[in-house]
Amino acid sequence: MKISIKTFITDEPGMPFMGPGPLRLLEKISEFKSINQAAGSMGLSYVKALNILNRLEKCLGEKLLERKRGGNERGGTQLTPYAEKFIWSYKGIEEKINGFAQTEFQEFQREFRKTREDEKD
C-alpha cells in the first residue's frame, strides 16, 4: 500500500489554480511550442487552455508565456524563464510533499499493524 497525494496551489478564496493539469499543460506547451497543439494533446479546447493559462498568469502576477503570432512558420509559444523556474520549483515542492506523505503513511501502517496485533492478543 502507498498513499497518493495531489498538490494544488489555491488563490485566497481557496480556488485551485495550479495542479497536475496546469503543470501538464505548461510542459506540453514547452514540448510543442504551441498552445493549440498542447491543448489538443490533452483533449482540451484551445479556449479552455487559454482560460487556464490566463488564470495562472493572473494568480501568479507574472507572464508565463512568450507568444508569437503568425501561423506555423512564424508563430509559436514558449515558456518564459519565470515559467520554467516555477515548474521546476513546483515539481520540487510536490516531490517533498509526496516524500513526507509516504514517510508518514509508513508510520501509520506500522501503528495500524501494531494496534491490530495488540487486539488479537
Your description of this structure?
This protein is 65% helix and 11% strand. The chain is mainly alpha-helical and 121 residues long. The longest helix has 40 residues, at 81-120. Strand 1 and strand 2 (16-18) form a beta hairpin. Helix 1 crosses helix 2 (35-41) and helix 2 packs across helix 3 (46-60). It contains 5 helices and 4 strands. The chain has a two-stranded antiparallel ribbon with strand order 1-2. Strands 3-4 form a two-stranded antiparallel ribbon. It has a single domain, classed as Orthogonal Bundle (Arc Repressor Mutant, subunit A).
How far the N terminus sits from the C terminus, by CA atoms, comes to 25 Å
> How many individual domains?
1
* Strands, total number: 4
User: How many DSSP H or I helices?
Assistant: 5
Oligomerization category of the chains in this entry: single chain
Q: Provide mean pLDDT, rounded.
A: 91
Main sheet, how many strands, which sense, barrel?
Answer: 2 strands, antiparallel
Which architecture name does CATH use?
Orthogonal Bundle
CATH superfamily: Winged helix-like DNA-binding domain superfamily/Winged helix DNA-binding domain
Helix % is: 55-70%
- Silhouette: elongated
Which structural class best describes the helix and strand composition?
A: mainly alpha
CATH class: Mainly Alpha
Give, in spatial order, the strands making up the sheet with the most strands: 1-2
| Low-pLDDT segments, ≥5 res | none
